[in-house]
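This part of the workshop introduces the protein records we will be handling. Getting from the letters to the tokens is the skill we practise here. An example says more than a description, so a record of this kind follows:
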Amino acid sequence: MLRQRLLPILLILLVCAGPIAAQTAPATKPAPNTAAVQAKDPIDVKLQEALRERDAIIRNLLERVSELEWRLNGGFTSPAKVDEKPVLTAASSSRVINSVVSTSTYDNTERQATEALDQALIVRGGLLLPSGTLEIDNTTSYLSASADHVTVDGFALLPVLVVGDITSERVREDYLLPAFTARLGLPHKFQGDFQIPYGYELIRTVDAENVQTSSSSFGLGDISFGLSRQFVTEHGKWPDMLANVRFKTTTGKDPYNLASSQVALGTGFPGLQGNLTMAKSSDPVVFFGNLNYTANLPANHTVPANDPTNPQATMVGHFNPGSSVGFQIGSILALNPETSMTVSWDQRFTRSTQLNGVDIPASYLVEGTLRLGTSYLYAPGRTIDLSFGVGLTPDTPNLQFSVGLPFRLGLWGPKQKKLER
């Protein structure tokens, strides 16, 4: 890709050799005498120096293009060596170039030019950190959801004629969920991470008589651990392919062991999730997609027995939460070396949950979210990541907004190593 961009520059340099020679060549003179032939023309010496300088510039550009392609291809081709002596054809003859090329400045420039885009890919699971790099991400998310419930205490004579009392209530849910995430790049294209969610949840309910009740909770959510591995590096028509396995614990308060004024910060069920992520670049855009499957493991919880003669009676119920299948598709556009923009669509389908072998009504969920995001590199190794989501199905929060402030530390290995695709 970069080779195609630089080819016009190389052609211009080669074409310029002719005009340089024509402008600097001496005018036609009578045949010189023997003494003049033995003396070297100073104009010719300058011309030769100019040609050597031009050829050195061309060699420098070729070395940089070859080095960058080798890095982007993940080392599938042999990188160029600075001690090679390629032969380049000049305007009138072939010359051997012996200049030594330094690419240290070039590496830093290329790394900074793609760091904002790389950060967006790392957050979305499409790119891994280099081995020995630790990234700490503090992300705060706000979610808002609402629902209207109608309860009929009576019977229906016709679909449009209901006899009895109709009770309605409006539920408003607000979540402020900070989360601490740590990612560590490991050797052999592995990456480990863990996430600790914690935050505040408020639920307000307004009934038909405009009486409002509220309940809230603050504390720790369900901690999760993950391991990622990149097993295909982008080359030719093949995209980057990464696999991820996550395990979710039950450290947060579940909805089955709460006081009357509390709400749940956890699900109460452990979960095991598998992800397959693919990313394909088409400068300046990177397209990515994700397929995921989550198996929510069964568990026993104490629930009300629903005994009319004893309202306080409880029993131990065996819950089999439904598994879920989801996907994500999107693209990341590099607006400039410091800024990138993300557009994506998230979709998830969750099967019904069973209690003692019987499906719980309305537990089948369909979630769909349209997301817009941007990443801005405001300092070396420090990025701000913004994400805005709109829920387009009844089972999805209406509004989602998050702000992330990731920063990186080099624990071992080269601190300035380019991110491996």
About this structure: The CA atoms of residues 36 and 377 lie 64 Å apart.
